[in-house]
Amino acid sequence: MTNQPRVALVTGANSGIGIEIARRLIEDGFRVIVSGRNNERGQEVADRLGPEASWVRADLSDSSAVQLLIDEAVRIGGRLDVLVNNAGVDLVGPILDVPEEEIRENFATNTFGTIFALQAAGRVMRDQGQGGAIINITSRLAMIGVPTMSLYSAGKGAVQALTTAAAVELAPLNIRVNAVAPGMAKTPLYDTWVSEQEDPEATEREVASKIPLGRIALPSDVAAAVSYLASPGAEYITGTTIPVEGGYLSQ
Q: Which of 57, 59, 77, 213 fits a disulfide with 246 by CB distance 3.0 to 4.6 angstroms?
């Protein structure tokens, strides 16, 4: 192995958790390719992150775009050591009433996009002959039921199952596959939701009161878990999920 920096690709890195994951991996010494659908915002993110970040636009709901993204990441970085499957979209609505089109759109990004990225990145890691780490961002909702979130949960639950099975299948190639499952996190999407409530401060207190550690997760909490799974210190860990939800699932 040369002294070339390790290279990571972070999908869905236009805002919130994705940006913080990219920032943390750069601090860890990675060359980071950030990706998402909004070209203007993504380029601004890469510029803010500095010279160790590069932006590549990609819509992971398009399977052909996924392969192009992986190819471009390898062209920029010269290799690929870590894939963080963070791209995702929300789907909220009563399970009996959500239109088929919305369901298919959600699965196209959250589930199929993750699968195709894992396949394409895994092939690169296999051909490099040095293994790598794939980290899927799932959700606490992959493990619990919440009204109006059933279909979102189903997509993330599929990724949870993929993580476990792929870890076993890819272990002989020294490709580790793990997941990070955030709970409620203070992202722009969360802030928007809170601001729309009748009493935002009371809503935040109520949400935090249901979490044993008494606060909502920060994007940096999620990024720290990803940092660990991407590090040499986690080289004997595969097929596991780190919940980052303040103890919520332990109740």
A: 213
Which residue in 152, 190, 236, 248 is the catalytic one? 152
- What residues does 34 pair with on adjacent strands? 10, 55
CATH class of the domain comprising 7-183+218-250: alpha beta
Sheet holding 82-85, edge to edge: 53-57, 31-36, 7-10, 82-85, 132-137, 175-182, 241-244
Quick: pLDDT tens for 52-69.
999 999 999 888 999 999
The overall pTM is greater than 0.90: yes
The DSSP secondary structure of 99-130, one letter per residue, reads: -HHHHHHHHIIIIIIHHHHHHHHHHHHHHHTS
Percent of the chain with pLDDT over 70: 99
Beta bridge partners of 179: 136, 241
Amino acid at position 60, single letter: L
Give the gyration radius of the chain's Cα atoms. 18
Q: Which of 226, 129, 18 has its CA nearest to residue 33?
A: 18
Question: Does the annotation count 190 as an active-site position?
Answer: no
| Model confidence pLDDT, tens digit, residues 158-202 | 999 999 999 999 999 999 999 999 998 988 878 888 888 889 899
